[in-house]
Write a structure and sequence with these properties.
- This protein is about 20% helix and about 45% strand.
- By secondary structure, it is of the alpha+beta class.
- A hairpin with a 3-residue loop joins strand 3 and strand 4.
């Protein structure tokens, strides 16, 4: 039998680097992913324990052998229908190394069933003598191990087999049927041959599984569709970063136009390691604020950030009569005419992540349209600078959030109805006495524009922000007990991971390859 698998992998397991290894790349990454030791254990248990135990039933090649027995002559012995019907993996380890990952399953037991048959001719009798029956085989102390190489191959993660093997320590065979008691000693001589067949077959199946897993990784899409407009670029950047207890990956992470081959705008990025306050979390995902700003720029350029408001909570705002005390000339020129609010952003919102919060500045133009005789008449344009603060949450596998109004300023950009007293727009338009009081004192009530922003603009934004955008998580896995950490220009999501039913490991490419998508 082969030398111990533990000896084969000892050098790899002991030579774990105290530093991280990474090849340089000219392309920047804006999302970094760290799989901690707990996360690696989770993946190992999923792939090793479940995967190896799922390699049943496993058919082994037939074994034939001829032996010479004194006074009998040549005896032909055959074992057929050899089937591994149960594998148990009580212990396994995973260890990142300098260029890859080693996985070793120890103390594995394996149960086989088979048919036995022998026949021989003897000069003592003119007929052939034969016998047959069944047998049970118990394999104990089996070690299964493989070393996997990981590298970035044109934006996909390439998985290669550096080493793979299986070692059977002990095997016992129990015959049933026929004169099995008579032949037990003779059959024991086949232990080594049966063990070698088990070793070679399991090793072959492991290699086939890794090849399929690599095909699965190569087929992962390089972008996650967000909607009809945008996709998230999840192209791998650089080779993995390996330490003695974790594996890190860098991906591009910027938003791109859906189904577009155009490269996104480059953003400034300061590299920072993924760090979680709770070291027991399986996964850490660090997002640079450039990810959010790339989404802002993309939706702005797609002319998504403009809309016409024709319904508001208080519909009187959309009739000139509601403005007669605020903009008298508007009501005088267009009495009791309906109105629209044509809102468009003049530049992409600027998003900043600080130690404790997410803030954004929104630059918008609000055009007041009068609807007269089926004609839309723009009468004035007010420029707004809106300051909002945001909250961030995890919704499924999406990073979602909402914003609230902190403050705003406004100025008159142009007008076809003369000068507007904007300070009057900042008081309650539907309370005429407040207008009169405003001239006498600065005891203003809640601003009209504030109400418009809070009841129209921000709710519209929060509908879309509440859906969020997908984080780079492979289909079938979900985040659990996630926490969000803010730092300067960075958002870190630290989470555990679960594999969701009804999906099961037979759907993973380790067993049967199929295309997949990111959530």
């Amino acid at each position: 039998m082969k030398p111990s698998i533990m000896l084969i992998f000892t050098a790899f397991l002991l030579f774990t680097p105290s530093h991280t290894t990474q090849l340089q790349s000219t392309e920047s990454s804006f999302i970094s992913i760290l799989i901690s030791s707990q996360g690696l254990d989770f993946i190992k248990n999923l792939l090793v324990t479940k995967a190896i135990s799922s390699l049943t039933p496993l058919q082994l090649p037939q074994i034939k052998k001829s032996v010479k027995i004194p006074f009998v002559g040549r005896v032909d012995i055959a074992f057929s229908n050899i089937t591994i019907y149960h594998i148990d993996v009580p212990s396994s380890i995973i260890a990142p190394g300098d260029t890859g990952v080693a996985i070793v399953a120890s103390g594995t037991t394996c149960n086989l069933s088979m048919h036995w048959h022998y026949s021989y001719d003897t000069w003592l009798l003119p007929v052939q003598i034969s016998d047959s029956g069944t047998a049970q085989v118990q394999v104990e102390g089996m070690e299964v191990g493989l070393t996997l190489g990981l590298e970035n191959r044109e934006g996909n993660m390439k998985l290669s087999i550096e080493d793979c093997g299986c070692y059977v320590e002990d095997i016992s065979i129990k015959l049933y049927g026929g004169a099995s008691w008579l032949y037990q000693g003779m059959v024991d001589a086949f232990e080594e041959q049966i063990g070698s067949v088990v070793e070679s077959t399991i090793t072959k199946k492991l290699k086939e599984g890794i090849i399929k897993l690599d095909s699965f990784l190569q087929a992962l899409p390089k972008e996650i569709p967000v909607d009809d407009i945008a996709s998230l670029n999840v192209t791998f950047v650089n080779d993995p970063l390996l330490s003695n207890s974790s594996i890190g990956f860098d991906i591009n992470g910027l938003f791109t136009r859906a189904n577009s081959t155009a490269l996104p705008k480059y953003y400034q990025f300061s590299k920072r390691p993924v760090s979680c306050t709770d070291s027991s979390k399986m996964l850490g995902i660090l997002l640079d604020e450039s990810v959010l700003n790339s989404a802002s720029a993309l939706y702005f350029n797609a002319e998504f950030m403009q809309w016409i408001v024709d319904k508001v909570p208080d519909q009187s705002l959309l009739n000139t009569a509601g403005w007669r005390f605020i903009i008298p000339q508007l009501y005088k020129k267009y009495p009791n005419d309906d109105m629209n609010m044509n809102i468009s952003l003049s530049t992409p919102p600027v998003i900043r992540v600080s130690q404790n919060n997410v803030d954004a500045i929104i630059y918008a133009d609000l055009i007041i349209d009068v609807l007269e005789s089926e004609e839309v008449i723009p009468v004035a344009c007010i420029s707004l600078v809106i300051h909002v603060s945001g909250s961030v949450k995890i919704s499924g596998n999406n990073l979602a959030g909402s914003v609230k109004l902190d403050d705003f300023t406004m100025s008159l950009k142009w007008s076809k109805i003369g000068n507007l007293h904007l300070f009057l727009v900042q008081i309650h338009a539907w309370n005429p006495s407040a207008v009169l009081q405003a001239y006498a004192a600065a005891n203003f009530k809640k601003p009209v524009m504030w109400t418009l922003i809070e009841t129209v603009i921000l709710p519209y934004a929060n509908v879309h922000l509440g859906k969020g955008f997908p984080l780079p998580i492979i289909h079938g896995f979900t985040l659990q007990n996630a926490e969000i950490i803010f730092s300067y220009s960075k958002i870190t999501v630290c989470s555990d991971v679960a594999f969701e039913e009804p999906h099961n490991l037979t759907q993973l490419p380790f067993f049967s390859y199929r295309n997949t998508v990111w959530l």
